[in-house]
Task: structure prediction
Amino acid sequence: MFGRRKKTEHREYDASVCKPVLKCSICTGEQVAGFQDLRTGKFDDVALIRNPAELQEFLDLYGLKDIEKIY
Result:
């Protein structure tokens, strides 16, 4: 119900194939967190980031300390 917090589970990704990035729009300021393929450069979005709390939730979900921004 209201006020309950979901347990944070940790998900994994293959660091040899992709890297976590925050794709930012210069025009609208929209931010999308996801993973970029190291070989092809293709971006796969995972979550829309609307505030710092959502960014921190994404970082905690994948066990990250920081994330690179791309435009």
